[in-house]
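Let us begin with a simple case.
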Amino acid sequence: ADPKTRITSAGGAILPQRSEIKRYSGPRLEAPPMTKQIGRDHFQLGVEDMYLFGDDYAEIIAREVRHRRHKDPKTGRYDGIELQDVKAGGTVSRHGGQSGDVIKSINGEPVTSVSEAITFVKNNGDKYDTWLVVVENMGRQRTVKYDSPPKIQR
């Protein structure tokens, strides 16, 4: 490792120090700094929250969520990401994540692991202004909607 790079471990993940993380420098966005809940399962993503999650997603997940791949009890096949325990008041909680949630899909794309979900979002971030996340909890399915901040034309 480069002696100038300081790393820490969070839940087994190697992470850069916060001071070494590069900030967003794309188009200016017009949105609240923090994510706002605008309906029961509807959120307007905040710019600062987006940057925070983009920069620190591994640390946030390690610090705030105990999770595992979920198996369908009928088929035995992996069918989602189970949020076993979500820290109250944390980033995940403020975005509607609850203990017991099983994330089934993002914009119609089935997800069965955290890395799969993150890869899908990173690879498709510029393609969607709205994110629809299908979640199941205690046998009930709901769709959580996240609106990306609108981009301002310069």
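The second case is a distinct protein. As before, the sequence precedes its structure tokens.
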Amino acid sequence: MRPNFYPELYGLKTLSVAGDYSFYYFKSWKILLDCGIYHPCYSDLRSVILSHAHMDHFGALFQVLSRNEFLHRPPLQVYGPGWVFPFFERIRTAQEFLNDSRGWTVQWNSFEHDVDLELGNNKILRAHRVEHRQPSYCLQILERRTHLKHEFQGSSPRAIKQLRKEKVEIEESRLYPLLFYSGDSNKTLLQHQDLSSFETVIVETTFFESGLREKAFTYGHIHFEDLLESVESFFGIQNLVLTHFSARTSPQQLTQAYNTLRSRLPDSTALYFNTLQKPGK
């Protein structure tokens, strides 16, 4: 299968079908969010970040580790919920034995609710607990950027050089919200207070059929009608990606949904549907 490719979204390559598989590979960062199926398009990754441990988000991780060992690559960095680690270790040990491996090179990094972790290259991971059938997290990537302090902005290059020579602290760092990925969650996610501050938001929309909103909530998923009710939450973002559609969703339903949502979003927000039968941009 050929993944969808969105070069303008940090080099995003992705495939997702609810219950079957999901992955989101950001080639510009070499970061993979979730790992439900192996694909050669992310063979050069450095880090895997897991939102939760359901098989359509987690199941291909051990194939990635095996491939990493075969290619003699540096240890893979894996970030995941702390409660998953004991299960990861048991499965890894069994898979290594069955694969005749001498030991996969992997560094597990546990995260908890709203605790920041350094990813390298000035990228920060922040995981926020969400409602799902098992403990799950939405994943946020922020970037640390350095700026001149307000009082020094507008200073001449010569003055700045002199201040640096005098070891005056003229700069400050800020965290810029780049990416918000919902993982699997119900509609309560749409009330996240910082949602509209991110450049790009990827949000699961598993259900579209009328009459299934209660089922979506019970199973820890978002219904398209939930999203329409909270559409103002997305005002101000640059890119909105809907993903994780049920295989039962028809191309006609997706086309209608795309047109409806497009008409309710500001023109400044680019809209993407992550499906092999893309109804729009």
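The longest helix spans residues 85-98. The mean pLDDT is 93.
Keep these points in mind for the review questions at the end of the chapter.
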